Amino acid sequence: MAVDNKTQFESALLRRLHSLLLQIGDLEGQLARGPRQIKAGEGVVQASQETLDQAKQAVKAATLACDEKQLQLKSREDRIEGLKAKLNTASSNKEFDLLKEQIAADEQANSVQSDEIFEGLERIDELQEAVAVAERELAEKTAEHKKRVEAVENRMVVVQADLDHVRNELAKAEAEVPAAARSEYKRLTEGRGDEALAPIEDDSCGGCNQTLTTQMVDRVRLGFLTHCPACSSWLYLP
Ligand SMILES: [Zn+2]
């Protein structure tokens, strides 16, 4: 290790540094979560919008199909009128019967068509109700999302202020790091963040659970800078 193993280091300072590094890690995590929460909310609104678009599309398609059926009904009615007019001028019984058959067939077809149109209109009513439900849902989700964004943004301001404060405190604490250890402290914390330091817990490293020798624990107790032999964290008393 680059650090002179005689370097004295107060556990209290390492404890404070570790606590501040942990707080910074936590606050940075909260800052990173904010945009993800907003993005997730946008996804919910987007899904509601798509549901509404599909519901509107279904009404449009059902209306078109129903309009088409009504046009067919009307044109068949016109044809029936035409056939009825020809009945009076039929030149033979055979032609008369043929006309009668055509009229009966068209009327039968229109009777079926009328039922289908009636069902189609009922279906359109249901689909329009689904559009209304989807519109309410979208309005709800949009309002919820607006609130969520406000809450997240407000919290981010607080978290950022806390982070600035803790970083400031960290800079003060780091100024107390003994000069002989400073460059290694920088190297360790820049690479590993709060994992650069670990408390001794039940004679083990709190970072990696490596069991420590009595000599190591004693060295830490005496204030000598000591690395965990397994994970290289600087050890301190909790
Ligand atoms: Zn360790």
TrEMBL record:
Residues 45-93, 117-183 form a coiled coil. InterPro entries: Oxidative_Scav/Glycosyltrans. Keywords: Coiled coil. Gene3D superfamilies: 1.10.287.1490. It comes from the Bacteria. This is Zinc ribbon domain protein. It comes from Stieleria neptunia.
